[in-house]
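hey
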């Protein structure tokens, strides 16, 4: 599995340090409030687990399924699962946590649904931001790392359902992507 990675982009140590800094930022934002943290599944699971363990405030945790990549490298039609129960959203401060902000379509769609459900405010926190891929106007309030337009895996990020368990973020070898792109074009 490690042989499929061209190079490590973000090491375990870099991730640990930045996630701790993000938790400090969020503690300052939320203070004594009790936000509902909404993790976008599946990619954010490792990030959100580490983040909330370092966040010494009262909070609630909810999950939302979103899928657009399926088996390939290009996003397709966005499928969103049901929202958390109304009592976890209406009138509450929400922190929407995702692994990566690239086109912005997923976070924009989820944010719009949460606002429509009556959230008091919705802030976004992403591990990675790929501004070169932005298709909609959206900026996350809390960003772990800004990265170039590489296809990355690890620390929750996957390729065709694999590599989520890597303890670092790495760039997938180009020949693996090229092979999949050829298969997608068929």
């Amino acid at each position: 599995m490690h042989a499929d990675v061209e190079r490590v982009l973000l090491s375990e140590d870099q991730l640990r340090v930045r996630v701790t800094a993000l938790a400090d930022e969020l503690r300052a934002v939320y203070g004594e409030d009790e936000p509902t943290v909404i993790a976008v599944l599946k990619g954010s699971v490792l990030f959100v687990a580490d983040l909330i363990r370092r966040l010494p405030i009262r909070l609630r945790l909810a999950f939302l399924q979103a899928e657009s990549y399926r088996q390939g490298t290009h996003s397709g039609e966005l499928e969103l699962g049901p929202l958390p129960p109304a009592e976890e959203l209406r009138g509450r401060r929400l922190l929407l946590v995702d692994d990566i902000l690239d086109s912005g379509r997923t976070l924009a769609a989820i944010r719009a649904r949460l606002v429509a459900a009556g959230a008091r405010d919705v802030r976004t926190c992403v591990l990675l931001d790929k501004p070169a891929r932005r298709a909609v106007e959206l900026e996350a309030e809390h960003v772990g790392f800004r990265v170039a337009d590489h296809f990355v895996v690890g620390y929750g990020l996957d390729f065709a359902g694999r590599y989520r368990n890597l303890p670092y973020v790495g760039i997938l070898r180009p020949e693996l992507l090229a092979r999949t792109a050829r298969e997608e074009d068929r």
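The radius of gyration is 16 Å. The helical segments are 12-30, 45-53, 105-116, 174-185.
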